[in-house]
Design brief:
By secondary structure, the chain is of the alpha+beta class. It folds into 2 domains: 35 residues, no CATH class; 350 residues, L-amino peptidase D-ALA esterase/amidase, CATH 3.60.70.12. Helix content is 24%, strand content 26%. The longest helix is centred in the last third of the chain and has 20 residues.
């Protein structure tokens, strides 16, 4: 029988197994347990104290803050093989073919398959929902957009669908071309205003960013007192690119997690689709200029826009509509002049940068057929933000 003396165990009477049990019970609270860590709660950049720029966001801090704009997703996660989807952006809820919106497309690095871009830049408008998907599903999504448009417009014999893409082939069975018309229509029909779901869903289901899990992200800005009026600008991104990650201007690449993640994209290859919406009345030329500033926002995050990257910006304004086969002169509101455009540039850069961060911070890890894309460690991000520098040796 075991004796107790002065509240302690006598060594000679204690079983070796009891020592092991006591040792384990002491070690576990200090983080030496071998159990896998729990999934982190995902939050957006502002929840971590990151406020890009000085402008206010819209109510939702999303592209849907621009009145009339809606976003919908269709997501496919099936086992380890299929991680892909479709994301659609509707400039307004009416018949887009009959009431087109002014638009422009900018190419950062053209290693991509953005469908419909030449007509957009030739005519200066968009006439279908904007769809984002994976590289090998562009044709399927384009056909679905065309069929959907034809079903609502009799006697029409030409439709210019706009479909952007990134290559999710590391995590997704991209050769299987799993996206169907059903998925596209589901994304269109489920599109709504308000809060936009972000992270590993829709067209971002199988994407990576800076070696971490990427996905869908969004942000917005209120541009105040421009020529006596306030305007809203929103950005949505599909992130699948690499480089040397910077968070709120601070290099993140020296952290252990970032070094490991960089092995997943050693050349920084990949792509980024950026969609910019605004209710500011702008000329085609100034829509193009805004698109260029979105690329500056992308560069702020550390992207090198590598040789293998397809980086595109689709910009549109909801300030007025362009009727199909107009018989009369088209009424266009007074346009924002060049002397008033700089705050819109600033809003574009800030919202793009924040949308990219949101796409990573909201993404969850995905295990694919060729490996796993881990979600960025938000604890390390918090430390970087708090200290204002790179998480390095102190965080190991």
């Amino acid at each position: 029988m075991m004796k107790m003396e002065s509240g302690s165990l006598r060594a000679s009477s204690v079983s070796p197994l009891l020592y092991i049990w006591v040792l384990i019970s002491v070690m576990v609270p200090f983080g030496l347990s071998q159990d896998p860590p729990k999934e982190q709660t995902r939050v957006r950049a502002r929840d971590l104290g990151i406020q890009v720029g000085k402008m206010e966001t819209g109510k939702w801090n999303a592209i849907t803050d621009v009145p009339g704009v809606k976003v919908g997703h269709a997501t496919l996660h099936k086992g380890k093989d299929v991680h892909t989807g479709v994301t659609v952006i509707l400039p307004h809820e009416g018949n887009l073919f009959q009431e087109k919106v002014p638009a422009a497309i900018i190419v950062g690095n053209g290693f991509g398959k953005l469908a419909g871009s030449t007509q957009v830049n030739e005519l200066g408008n968009i006439e279908t929902p904007i769809a984002l998907t994976n590289t090998l599903s562009v044709a399927s999504v384009m056909e679905s957009l065309v069929r959907s448009t034809l079903s609502k417009n009799d006697k029409v014999r030409s439709v210019n669908g706009v479909v952007g893409e990134t290559n999710d082939g590391r995590l997704n069975d991209i050769r299987g071309m799993h996206i169907t018309e059903e998925h596209v229509l589901s994304a269109i029909n489920s599109a709504e205003s308000g809060v936009v779901s972000e992270g590993s869903l829709g067209a971002g289901a199988g994407t990576q960013c800076f070696g971490f899990k990427g996905g869908i992200g969004t942000s917005s800005r209120i541009v105040k007192s421009v020529a006596g009026k306030n305007y809203t600008l929103g950005v949505l991104v599909q992130t699948n690119f690499g480089g040397d990650l910077r968070i709120d201007g601070n290099p993140f690449g020296n952290s252990p997690g970032a070094k490991l993640a960089s092995l997943n994209q050693p050349n920084g290859d990949g792509s980024c689709m950026i969609v910019v919406a605004t209710d500011a009345p702008l000329s085609f030329r100034n829509l193009e200029r805004i698109g260029k500033r979105a690329l500056h926002g992308m560069a702020r995050t550390g992207s090198s826009m590598s040789n293998g990257s397809g980086d595109y910006v689709i910009v549109f304004s909801t300030a007025y509509r362009i009727p199909y086969r107009a018989k009369d002169l088209i009424e266009i509101p007074a346009l924002l002049g060049n002397d008033h455009i700089t705050p819109v540039f600033e809003a574009t850069m800030d919202a793009t940068e924040e949308a990219i961060l949101n796409s990573m911070f909201m993404a969850t890890a995905v295990e694919g057929e060729n490996g796993t894309a881990e979600a960025i460690d938000l604890k390390a991000v918090r430390k970087a933000v708090r200290r204002g520098d790179t998480p390095g040796a102190d965080d190991k």
